[in-house]
Amino acid sequence: MWRDLVEVLERSLALVPNEDDRLNILTRRARIFLDKLHRDDKAIVDYQRILEIDYANLVALRSIAAIRRRQQDANQLVHALHQIVGRASHLLDPEELKEIYRELALIYSRHLGRHQEAAQAWRKLLEIDADPQALDSLENMYRDMQSWPDVVQIKMMRAEILRDRATKIEEYRSIATIWTQMLRQPDGATAAYEKILELDPHNSEAFEELERRHRRASRWPQLIDLLLARLDAGPGKTEKIALLHKIAQVCEEGLGDANEAFVALMSALEEDVHDGETARYIERVAGATGQWEELIRTATGWLEQRKEPKDQIRILMHLAKWHNLNGHTQYAHAYYAQIEEMMPNNAGALEVYREVLHADPTNLQAMLGLARVHEALHQWTELQRVLEAAVEVAETGAERIEILLRLAKLEEEHFVRHDQAARRLEQVLEIDDTHEDAYAVLERMYQRTRKWRELVRTYERHLEIATSREIKVQLYAAIAKIHTDDLPDPKRTIDAYRHIVAMDDSNVEANAALAKLYEGQGNSNQSLEHMTRLAELTRDPQERAEAFFKIGKALEQKTGNRLEAQDRYDLAIGFDPTHVRALAAARKIAMDNSDYERAIRYLDQEQSHTPHARTRSKLLVELGNLHKDKMNDSKSALLAFEAAYQADDDNEEAARPLIEEYIERKEWAKAEGPIELVIRKGGNKRPREEQHALFKRQGQVALALGKNDKALKAFTSAYRFDVTDLETVRGLGDAAFNMRDWNGALTRYHKLLTSLPQDEKELRADVYFKLGCMKREQGFAKQAIANFEKAFTSNEVHQPTLEACIKLYTDQKDWKQVAGLKKRQLDSESDPEKRYQMLLEMADLWEQKAKDLFKALECLEDALKLKPDCYPLMHRIVALCQQTENWPRVIETIWTMASLDRDPTRKSKYIYAIAQVYRDKLGDEGKAIEHFNEALDLNPGLLEAFERIVKMLTVNKDWKALERSFRKMLRRLTKSTDMELQNNLWHSLGLIYRDRLNDVPSAIEAFKLAARAGEAAHPERTIDREILAELFEATDQTDSAIAEYSRILTKDPMRIEPYRAMCKLYLRRHEYDRAWCLCAALSFLRKADEGEQQFFESYRPRRMLQVRSRLGNEQWVRSLLHTEEDLYVDKIFEMLVPAAIVAKLNQLRAQNQLPVLDRRYRQDPVTSTVTLAKTFGWAAQVLGVPAPELYVRPDIQGSLLAVPYSPPASVAGQTILSGFTPQELTFIVGKHLAYYRGGHYMRNLFPSLNELKVMFFAAIKIAKPDFNVPADIAEGVKGAAQELSKYMQPIQRDSLRVVVQRFIDDGMKVDLKKWAQTVEVTAIRAGLLLCADLEIAKKVIMAEPQLPGDMAPSDKLKELVVFSVSEPYFNLRETLGIAVAA
Q: What integer pLDDT is reported at residue 1382 of this predicted model?
């Protein structure tokens, strides 16, 4: 049964196209063979078939390994385990992968005796995790093989994972022993001893061994670092000083840097200022380097920090000695004096100085030293005696002056003998009559002794030698004060102040004093001159205003010059517009001069700044009267009276002019207050006629305000004064009417009618109207209508009567009567706006009440004549025409609206509506299409119109007209940015050409434009490209078809059809290399059929390619560089690389991170037998890039790395030296070398995006110093630009400026992240070109670590697959001579 089942499953495989289903069937067959039939061989075959479909199927891979494990076939098991690792390592978790490598290692070592392979397996395991078993096994294997470098490497790894510090140290000691005893390379133990010191900074053995090795190898910077690290470990004082001596010695003798030696010795002396050896050493170095000033300044700082007297005295002795050694003996005395001060008492110092003077009585320095001691002991008499003796022995004038000044100070402060102090100061001035300080003190002495005449003479002498204007001003001011207060003399006072003004005419105090002095003398002109100057000098505006006001008053009162006085008042007002007194004074002069305009201006400004309301109100009344009486400006007068009344509502003079004005303007509410005020203020004092007029006006105002009681009372009062006045009678009637006092109103109106002349028709109509209203309110409708008719007799269009009648007939729902009355209203109205509103109301009445749509339409048509451009009205007409199915009128009205509208969008909608009417109501499709097109011409975005055209033409199968419509629509959209719409139109047009008109060339052009628009809207869209490819292929345009398929793959690398179609096209043209590349891609994607797979395998390279040429710059730029790689960035970085290398090396050197490359490990690709080295040289030649130096280090972990070095170098670690085939190495090396081309090398130096950003903007900053860089990196860019500039040659800077300028001119667009990614893609392209195998590329790419900003491995592979079937790749293969031959 099971055998039959497997046969059935085998047959079903041929019928199942889906790969997942095929995998399930094969898995089931394999399980049956394994579990039921016990046929391991058959199961393995099916599992192999599964792997052909799914390259990394873990179930199959694990099952094969399990079978081989059960069969105990070591060789086959090893092969199965390698298959798991090779195919599916990326799917395994780390623990499972470790166990596979462990099993491989154990099988190789225990069963197959292949220790090299076992070691490789253990190493692969260690790449995942530092496993103790792997470390122990590898160490034993390498010890047996006496491969001591490998032993060292393993022990270093073990030391890293050990937790116990003592055990780690012992491990490193054993590593050092191996380097010394086994490898005979003592210097190799350096790293181990450094590790020990990291763990135990106090380890003397490691320190001494490292010191010995660094000295032997003359590694002075490393030795300095070691000694500094020892210092950081905190040794004792003695050891610390010894270490600093060693550092100084290394700096001076090893590095030739005496300055750094000086710094170290300073630290040593600071540690112990009593150390004579250090002092002598530093004095020698300071003398050699000329750093005495630095030495003295630093030691002075110690003096302030130290508290111990013995330390301070020792430092002072050093300082005195160093000043002498530096040639500044004069400074040494100060330090000796300081030492004296620090002695327990001054007795010793006194004794010393006395002994000196006994031996040399004229020793001025001893005298001065003795004076210092006496001064410190407050022995003032002895001090005076010593100083007087010193004056006698002093040789120079300067020395005598200094001593005399000390004597004067002593007399002033301690003996309080100001006369004696003055005598000493006079002696100073005898020696030097220009001594400013002596004058100042002498003047103080004469002030204290009140010797005014001597003081004035001293001031005058001082003035003769003074050079500063400020001092002279002070001296003259002092003289003026004396002649004012102590020696009164107005003339000399004025002279002193005039001297001040002559030097400084802006001196406020002097000008003020002179103005006052001249005023006291009666000299008005001089006083005014200084007052004016004082006003000009005053900075405060209010003070200046007050000053000019006073000047104006003085001019007006004392000189009678009112013209100049007014100018000063104007100046005062200019500085302070609120100065009311100046305004009033200026107004008075203007009024006296009949200058009413100016008077009005002053008066207006005066009232606006007058705070008191009543005063302000009076000023405003005066202002109003000026406007009314003098300027005939009633409008301004009214405003002034209004403002006056608002300021004081009890001001009758303000209220009276307002009454008639308000009544005439019918501003009843405003008139009420003023008229009541006037009535209240006047009482019964006014004449009867005036009282009658006031009460009548009050009644009219109250009536207008609806205050009927008040109106009745006012008219009644007026009636008492004149019973014959008809206005008063009418007022009484209107008040009664409003109060619904029908009898009272009837009486007054009857009296009024009997008295009214017949020609008073309007008034009679109004009376009859009110009588009709009264009857209507009493419920007598007929009588009401009779009165209304009488009103019409007097005035047939009396509007209130018409309104009343309309209301009556409306209540009775007699709509025709209502319409007739409204027509009468309309005929009587001349205002177009009111007529328009009436017509609308009549239209509403006919439409909604009378239900006569035609009458309503007539009204609307009449209204339209009044407002021919009223859109709402025309919309309403259209609606009524639609209801009456008057379609021609609908079209006419809509066309009118369209003609009036200037906005194309709105206008297009009107035309669209007309087209709809033609199509749907009149059945005229020709007219409809014509108007739809007209709407689209106005508004191409009105797609509904186009859809209706398309629908009508499609139904009619008028394909040529439809094609023309699409063409016309596309012309309308020439400037449109809606790419998706354009894509749809071109696509549809292409379908019309292809499917309806059989016009393939036109279809191709349409789909080309559709593709261009579609990609602008949706870059991933490919449908138009697919159609184009089919059309090109159908018309034998092979090149174009291939180009379209290539574009499709660029957008969707996982689409299989384009690969297969291109392959067939290339085979048809016998271009076998291109076809082979397509088959290679299909195979890589697991989509190749049997023939494609066979063709690929037939020419698949199994070893390094045999190239017949090499790449030049042209091939790189045209074919190998990524098409989106920014060439500006490339070129800018290329010009920066030489300087960047130097800067990077200096940075690493300063950080003590500069790599040290052992020349013993350098490999020459020409002569080396190492596979990697030979591959390295071959790849560099093929790619045409300069080969960096190669260092092969089997003793360290790592792959192939670029090392910042000069010249550029690469280091190959243990990882890359084994486990890779030569073909795999070509990919790794090719990718690596691509980073050494031009600007790409910058990624080796500065791999992070932030670093690249700083370097790029630094380059721009070098070329354009004024360029503004982003604020967040400004500091970094500035430092980098300064550093890089140091290492750039002028020609490099000039070239950089040219490129940067072009970059700026081209829009300055840069995306450094994208540039870095495209550089990486270029690198993997180079690798693929050299290995010609996508599977190898995938293996390496998937194993590489991901860095921030890198493309995802899957994206890299997509880029690589598309490149592998591109024209640039084909051309590169032909250039190198590796293309598959025909």
A: 56
- Residue 1190 phi/psi, 5° resolution? -115, 125
* Spatial separation of the C-alpha atoms in residues 1190 and 1163, rounded to whole Å: 6
Question: Could you tell me the strand order of the sheet in which 1162-1163 lies?
Answer: 1162-1163, 1189-1192, 1209-1212, 1200-1203
Q: Are 415 and 423 in contact (CB under 8 A)?
A: no
CB 856 within 8 A of CB 841: no
Report d(CA 824, CA 842) in Å as an integer: 12
Provide the 10 A C-beta neighbour count for residue 602: 26
Paired residues of 1210 in beta bridges? 1190, 1202
CA distance linking residue 447 with residue 429, whole number of Å: 18
| Tokens found for residue 399 | 């020395």
Could you tell me the two tokens for 586? 């200026």
- Both tokens assigned to 667: 């501003």
Using alpha carbons, select from 720, 1004, 1350, 1126 the residue that is nearest to residue 1342: 1350
> What pLDDT score does 1326 carry?
95
Q: Are 972 and 904 in contact (CB under 8 A)?
A: no
Structure tokens at 1093: 């797979």
Helix (H) or strand (E) holding 41: helix 40-53
**Predicted local distance difference test score (pLDDT) of residue 1358:** 92
The residue count of the chain comes to: 1382
What pLDDT sits at residue 352? 47
**DSSP code for 1121:** S
Please give the Cα distance from 370 to 368 (Å, whole number). 5
**Model pLDDT, residue 329:** 57
Task: Tell me 1345's DSSP state.
Answer: P
What is the model's pLDDT at position 356? Answer: 44
pLDDT confidence of residue 1226: 93
Cβ atoms of 273 and 286 closer than 8 Å: no
Is 908 buried (19+), middle (13-18) or exposed (0-12) by CB count in 10 A? buried
Amino acid at position 452, single letter: W
Tell me how many helices (H) and strands (E) the chain has: 74, 4
pLDDT given for residue 348 in this prediction: 57
Ordered structural domains, the chain, with CATH: 218-290 (1.25.40), 396-465 (1.25.40.10), 988-1098 (1.25.40.10), 1113-1376 (no CATH)
Please tell me the predicted confidence (pLDDT) of residue 322: 75
Retrieve residue 1076's tokens: 């082979």
Q: Where are the alpha helices (DSSP H) in 756-831?
A: 761-778, 781-794, 799-811, 815-828
One DSSP character per residue, 843-904 reads: HHIIIIIS--HHHHHHHHHHHHHH-TT-HHHHHHHHHHHHHTT-HHHHHHHHHHHHHH---H
Low-confidence residues of the chain: pLDDT under 70 = 1, 309-310, 313-314, 317, 320-321, 324, 327-360, 362-366, 368-369, 508, 515, 519, 522-525, 527-532, 534-537, 548, 558, 683, 1382
Site of tokens 């391991």: 40
Burial of 941 (0-12, 13-18, 19+ CB in 10 A): middle
Of 88, 123, 121, the C-alpha closest to 107 is 121
In DSSP notation, 1199-1266 reads: SEEEE--SS-EEEE-HHHHSS--HHHHHHHHHHHHHTTSGGGGHHHH--SHHHHHHHHHHHHHHH-TT
The structure tokens 């270093």 sit at 156
Of 1154, 1138, 1110, 1136, the closest CA to residue 1375 belongs to 1110
Quickly list DSSP for 1170-1202.
-HHHHHHHHHHHHHT-PPPEEEE-TTS--SEEE
Q: What's the one-letter identity of residue 1064?
A: K
Give pLDDT tens digits for 22-72. 888 888 888 888 887 888 888 888 888 888 888 888 888 888 888 888 888
CA distance 982 to 47: 53
Helix (H) or strand (E) holding 757: none
- Residue 1188: the pLDDT is 92
Question: Residue 6, class by beta-carbon neighbours within 10 Å (0-12 exposed, 13-18 middle, 19+ buried)?
Answer: buried
